[in-house]
């Protein structure tokens, strides 16, 4: 009878850890990691539990227990357990075809990403692309999955890698490269809706790179691809929101508000609609987040504050990163309005949460807020925030780079 083992080894490898590097991250010996992987967890003290959970990108002790739980036998080849990402009970996915397995893996990555940020999952996504997705693209003739569906699955997972490069390490050049590749895969798969979804991601990145007119052009192309396909209403709303962001960044108020109204109208009529496969979720909180940034760019601080507070109200539960972004937007709005003490209080709250996130975007925005408030450091609330920010500051490893053109 095989020795019961935990799911730690699989999760460790998926996240790009060796036993040595995980041992270093937690502060234990390699032998201890080996014992935990064999299901022998008596040496896992309450002090070590949060350190191991943080290293693995898990949000709590319950999820860690699921990962460490001994299993009576090894999982079948090709199985992917939801609990290895800290999102549920084990599930044997060998009953599904390759496309369905990729889709469920993507869902597991996305759900964990919302709680802990892209940094801890990025290497796992890249490894999954290389080891699970790429070989399937070479086996499209074996009847297990048709080429069109498989190209769509590969495109969606590649787009996810782009988002994690953008959010986790701040490597926007690499994110742009992944989005480029994802768009070409979706086009090869003749999936107009997924192509439009990737256009929304590229438009977002163009805004982050300070390229509003590229963002407008890309989002407009996305709207043309989305057309009137079934399950596209929330995607259309997202594309209108990206156009609004770009117009706001360019200082063009009227088209900005027109696009926000169009996005809101799409959300209103999308109630009850099931979004098509592979399409990124977009809801009222998502729109409020984009609207807050629009009005911030337009220096309309009252409306920007209202929208940012709406994001914070709507985002709860496992949507940790989204809520933090709402708080950071609110802090930036308050600072812009001259209410530096209130901005600092919000910033300090974010510092208390940011330690549980692996997000370069969060770190960079906290750094920017600290620079903006530095001149008011004699204000007591600002002094507290600056101390908290310095205590939690860490490098993001961001790399500045450029690729020649967008693919659309």
Question: How would you describe this protein?
Answer:
66% of the residues lie in helices and 0% in strands. It has helices at 8-14, 19-26, 30-37, 48-56, 61-68, 98-116, 122-137, 147-169, 172-188, 192-208, 212-226, 233-249, 253-269, 284-297, 301-314, 320-336, 340-354, 360-373, 380-392. α13 (253-269) packs antiparallel against α14 and α16 (320-336) runs parallel beside α18. It is flat, with a radius of gyration of 22 Å. It starts with 7 loop residues before the first helix and ends in a 16-residue tail after the last helix. The model is unreliable at 72-93 and 394-403 (pLDDT under 50).
Short description:
The chain has about 400 residues and is mainly alpha-helical. It has 19 helices and no strands. Helix 2 packs across helix 3 (about 30-35) and helix 17 (about 340-355) runs antiparallel to helix 18.
